[in-house]
Amino acid sequence: MTFNEFMAKVAAKNPGEPEFLQAVKEVVETIWEAYESNPRFVKNNVLERIVEPERTIIFRVPWMDDKGEVHVNRGYRVQFNSAIGPYKGGLRFHPSVNLSILKFLGFEQIFKNSLTTLPMGGGKGGSDFDAKGRSDAEIMRFCQSFMAELYRHIGPDTDVPAGDIGVGGREIGYLFGMYKKLHNEFTGVLTGKGRTWGGSLVRPEATGFGVVYFTEEMLKTKGQNFAGKKVALSGFGNVAWGAAQKVTELGGKVVTISGPDGYIYDEAGLNAEKIEYMLELRASNNDRVSDYADKFPGAKFFAGKRPWEVKVDVAIPCATQNELHVEDAKALIANGCTCVCEAANMPCTPEAVEVFMNAKILFAPGKAANAGGVATSGLEMTQNSMRLNWARDEVDEKLHSIMRNIHEACRENGTQADGWVNYVKGANIAGFLKVANAMCDQGLV
Ligand code: NDP
Ligand code: 2IT
Question: 47 and 167 in one domain?
Fold first, then answer.
């Protein structure tokens, strides 16, 4: 079979799933050669098996609002691959959620989790629930109803969900409480838990910190570091918050954040007070990053625009998939940006990625760069199994070393003849080989 024939087959089997097909294509085109040249993989038809989730659960989530009205959302859990460990991956609550998006995220998660070197398979779930304008009690009732079905499909050795867009510490708390009540068991079934009830230190910051550790490694290959660098972030959620902290700590200047309504340009750069305010903004559930400009008058709000038009050295998209388009990529390059590191999952469109690749700048895919979040989830699982808690420095040091190792794996598998590192190819090959071999070892299951 040729690559095009393979993709046509996957497309025919998964109609109406553009994000999933986008993610599959990006992985398969970079591993095709490594796959085809391995008779064991071909004999076991690993590729066709790996693009099919082991199990997909879709369920009704009924809940009552504060006025007594009944609403129905759709819940999902895609248990994609358990070759190297229990299914592991976040839950996303956002009105845009559908099967295509969760399958793309679950597919990416397989390779990302493999890159962390920890024993975690790939999965993802969520719901099309819109938290905007909802009270705390409504969010609790929704989470409880969601878990009233999900609890029978997950467990600390089966499937361990965590947060993603729209699911943070508060939601994990309500989900955990309901799981515990239904199972009558206090176990590490979710990660991102509160500090006093099984959570790991550094998990809230881990994705953003990990992204910045990874970017630092990339900059080092050019003899550079963050000191004095201007950095554009998008989003204003959990990942953007963690990244803003670490960039600032390392001497870089974060000059943008964004929301669906537009972006903020803050020439003076974010500082501790402004980064703290991001938490307030996120918790307000009102979707208006423009509030930042009212609070900090030096900052400007650009309605309906994306931050990639600003002249920066480093760009770190932290919001959502396909948020950085081809014209944004061209603008970044024209403005002298030499490093783009994906913190969100698949934030750059394939056409934007092509622009970065052709320009041979430093470009890292999300599955490598944002793996620090799930890696620290893995460290939370280890601590739960051992029934003890590591100190902050211990977790942070382990996270840092995992990110350095992922960077090294990308270089090993992605360095081209002219010395330029294709991090996309490197990450995909390194992540794929381990899972593919494990699938062959375990027979046809
Ligand atoms: P949050 O819900 O905390 O934040 C997401 C942010 O992006 C929100 O501020 C959201 O605003 C904003 N946003 C959504 N759509 C757009 C848009 N079109 N333009 C600009 N901003 C937008 O989620 P996280 O920070 O946890 O997740 C962000 C990304 O990082 C996602 O791609 C996620 O999959 C990925 N990720 C998360 C990890 C984690 O540990 N949390 C780990 C690895 C990756 P609003 O909600 O108002 O739409
Ligand atoms: O995309 C991701 O890696 C996450 N949302 C984190 C998943 C996890 O299990 O911590």
Answer: yes
Structure tokens, 142: 């929704």
Ligand 1, pocket-test mutation among 238, 287, 367, most atoms within 8 A of CB: 238
Claim to verify: residue 348 and residue 241 sit in the same structural domain: yes
Ligand 1, residue 343: give the atom nearest the CA.
30
* Active-site position among 124, 193, 230, 274: 124
Total structural domains within the chain:
2
User: Of the residues 152, 187, 222, which one is the last residue of a structural domain?
Assistant: 187
Q: Which residues form the domain of 121?
A: 3-187
Q: What is the pTM of this model?
A: 0.97
Q: Which domain CATH number covers 215?
A: 3.40.50.720
Tens of pLDDT along 360-394? 999 999 999 999 999 999 999 999 999 999 999 99
124 catalytic residue (yes or no)? yes
Residue 282 lies in a domain: yes
pLDDT at 284: 82
Assess if residue 81 is contained within a domain. Answer: yes
Which ligand sits nearest to residue 165's alpha carbon? 1
Pocket of ligand 1 (CB under 6 A): 163-166, 168, 207, 234-239, 258-260, 282, 287, 318-320, 323, 343-345, 370, 373
